[in-house]
Design goal:
- The structure is a single chain.
- The protein is built from 7 helices and 13 strands.
- A 5-stranded antiparallel beta sheet has the order 9-13-12-11-10, with no helix packed on it.
- Helix 4 packs antiparallel against helix 6 and helix 4 runs antiparallel to helix 7.
- A hairpin with a 6-residue loop joins strand 7 and strand 8.
- The protein is an alpha+beta fold.
- Helix content is 45%, strand content 14%.
- The protein folds into 3 domains: 68 residues, 30s Ribosomal Protein S14, Chain N, CATH 4.10.830; 121 residues; 92 residues, no CATH class.
Length: 385
């Protein structure tokens, strides 16, 4: 039977033959399972049973390149490990070579010691890995918890603004309703006044027509006998002017009262938020100045303000007193989040990247080259000119 092979298959088969380690003592190629460094021979399962069990005969996995396991200087098998130089050596290296007199160990012993170190390292890394896993889980749980808090806060804020908008819309509705009511009243009043004026206008039209007809009478006796002035036209005109002024107008006071009262209630509702736990507000920390550290600057009786002065304050010298226009705060904070407020006429804030006692220095430049330095949790007020 004929077989055809491609070039790549032939090359692959040859490569496998080259990397395959065969038993040294078998007549036909048999896969070796172990290699003896002492004998420099490889053994199959059958011949391995007859091989010496002496500790000098080190068995390793089949290895084609045995030269790597020999000393490059003496061409002998590497059997020992020099603990001083951390290198594998042969007998000649230890007896008469560069490693003479050095502390050495058999490769198996040195290997077991290294394995023990590796096992200890693995054990420690496993503990670190477990700790890292716990941290990841804690961070994951923290993220989930914070996500819940953020979702809850988002819902609270949404509900809050919905309620605030509703209050404003209700207030707007009340104000516009009052304006609409007054608009109807003004419209009704003006319409009634217009109706009255139109009636008066009609009366005047009739009277004018009557007077004009009387002017056309040629008989003096007839004209003089007619009583045409029962109604005083000039007085009725004055009454018309008075009626216009008495027509209903927009009452700004009522509208303004409704608006202002609604806004006051709205502000009260906002202030009530500070007294509830819905949106807690950070209270400012009370920072008092330490007069024992103050230089010749004016410190208020409340210990809450400092100001520069050219007049000596005649304070006694002390180890804590500054030699320039500075003062420390008398309180400090060991933990938590805090803030305080400074009232000054001019300010320029800078953050330095320098360190003092492993703490950041925060500079607040004030008027007249003054500044505040926050060192860790303490505050230094500098009033330097």
């Amino acid at each position: 039977m004929r077989h055809n092979f491609c070039c790549s298959c032939i090359v692959s088969a040859l490569d496998m033959e080259e990397t395959r380690v065969c038993c040294t003592y078998c007549d036909s190629p048999e896969q070796a399972v172990r290699t003896c460094l002492q004998c420099e021979a490889s053994f199959c399962e059958k011949h391995l049973q007859r091989h010496s069990k002496s500790s000098e005969h080190i068995l390793v996995d089949p290895d084609v390149n045995l030269e790597e396991r020999k000393c490059s200087t003496h061409n002998e098998v590497l059997k020992y490990y020099c603990t001083m130089d951390a290198s594998c050596i042969c007998v000649s290296c230890w007896v008469a070579g560069d490693h003479m007199g050095h502390e050495v160990e058999i490769l198996d012993v040195a290997s077991e010691k290294k394995k023990e170190k590796l096992r200890s390292a693995v054990e420690k890394m496993n503990l670190d890995k477990m700790e890292a896993g716990k941290k990841i889980q804690n961070l994951t749980d923290h993220g989930v918890e914070e996500e819940k808090k953020l979702s809850g806060l988002t819902e609270k804020v949404t509900n809050l603004f919905t309620d605030l908008r509703k209050k404003l819309v209700d207030l707007e509705s009340r104000v516009l309703s009052e304006i609409s009511r007054q608009k109807d009243q003004v419209s009704l009043s003006v319409s009634d006044m217009i109706r009255q004026v139109e009636l008066h206008k009609d009366e005047l039209t009739k009277k004018i027509h009557q007077f004009e007809e009387s002017c056309d009478i040629t008989d003096p006796l007839t004209l003089l006998r007619e009583d045409l002035f029962k109604v005083d036209v000039s007085d009725r005109s004055c009454d018309v002017i008075g009626d216009v002024r008495e027509a209903q107008s927009l009452d700004y006071v009522v509208v303004t009262q409704i608006l202002y009262r609604g806004l006051l209630r709205f502000v009260e509702d906002l202030n009530n938020l500070k007294r509830t736990s819905l949106f807690p507000v950070m209270e400012k920390s009370e920072v008092l100045l330490d007069i024992d550290s103050a230089h010749d600057i004016i410190i208020s009786q409340t210990l809450t303000s400092a100001s520069y002065t050219a007049t000596s304050q005649n304070r006694p010298d002390g180890p804590e007193r500054f030699e320039s226009c500075q003062v420390f705060s008398s309180c400090s904070f060991s933990s938590g989040r805090h803030y305080w407020e400074l009232d000054i006429s001019s300010i320029d804030v800078e953050i330095s990247d320098r360190y003092y006692c492993s703490s950041h220095l925060y500079f607040i430049n004030l008027l007249l080259m003054s500044y505040v330095i926050v060192i860790g949790a303490e505050m230094l007020l500098d009033m330097r000119e």
